[in-house]
Amino acid sequence: MIxxxxxxxxxxxxxxxxxxxxxxxxxxxxxxxxxxxKMKEIRNKKRIIANDNTKDHMPATEVFSAKEIETFPSWxxxxxxxxxxxxxxxxxxQTSNGRKYHRxxxxxxxxxxxxxFFINSVINTxxxxxxxxxxxxxxxxxxxxxxxxxxxxEIIKFFTKEGELxxxxxxxxxxxxxxxxMSNRQALGIDLSGEYIDLYKEANKYLGLRExxxxxxxxxxxxxxxxxxxxxxxxxxxxxxxxxxxxxxMMSREKTGEAxxxxxxxxxxxxxxxxxxxxxxxxxxxxxxxSESIENSMQFLKSNGxxxxxxxxxxxxxxxxxxxxxxxxxxxxxxxxxxxLGTKIWADQGVNLFPYGYPYSYVSNQIHQYIMxxxxx
Length: 377
Description:
Layout (H helix, E strand, L loop, with lengths): L3 H10 L6 H33 L4 E3 L6 H4 L4 H4 L6 E3 L5 E3 L5 E3 L9 H7 L3 E4 L11 H4 L8 H11 L5 E4 L6 H8 L3 E6 L2 H14 L5 E4 L2 H4 L3 H8 L4 E6 L14 H4 L21 H15 L3 E11 L12 H10 L4 E11 L19 E9 L1
Parallel strand pairs: 5-11, 6-7, 6-9, 7-8, 9-10
Antiparallel strand pairs: 1-2, 2-3, 3-4, 10-12, 11-12
Helix pairs in contact: 7-8, 13-14
């Protein structure tokens, strides 16, 4: 357990000793919960190992050819000398650290445990915005809404296999492209802004990653030009379209909330000043144009490929519910060959909280975004 005397010494050095009891109690609760969770995890692992020990085992290298082994995920290949076939079907591979891969997995290269973790409908994160773990946030923060490469990597890993292609035609400063490089995938990014593309390249170089293909263009028009875009794609189809579109004219409106509370500028911060930018369109116009872009992008997407879209609702106002994610789901699900699969909610715990509406009315601190998932039939 926590050594209270040592904790008090640390808190004194940080001039927090007056809060020592409160901090000690909170840490004790957190440690106890962590221990309980870890003990449960260990019990489950022991149960699985005991169950596996009752099944047939055979070294994978005695069964599969070098050509077959090349089709396995890199984490299996890297440990292939120690990898065992579990069971009589020859479908389940288990590496020396206990990770399992099912050879019938046509979607990704995840183990069963990793698959189960991803399909949780809520993601809670607190990504650092400084230091090495921020993944060049000091460069990417020039964009009004940069997506964390770590989050994009997790999404890419679930909906693609290693080496497959990801398309992001609203790339911004390249969170998707960085995530693709981090997970050994290919990616093509398109953006109206050459400045944002340059920032992606700067961040990518800073991180020492493989640079992905980028195109400065109006993606809405480029998606209509099959032959031109195919030259960049080299006639390869994407397994995943992963996009964080500008949400209509949301960023083109005067700021409220944190900007007002901190006496910051409330001036609009549009992604660009260009008329063709979806971020400068009224919602109904945006919805129509965006839906058409998805429809056009489907010609570059494999059958059974996925489309993943980020969006954030606005606060209800003047009788308007502003449930933007509902509008998007309905519009895209109505497209021929596009099926809605479900939504993940991303809770960004790094967002600052403020007493909006206090002391008169309830106003949400919206720390969440919707990650909507569709599949091409």
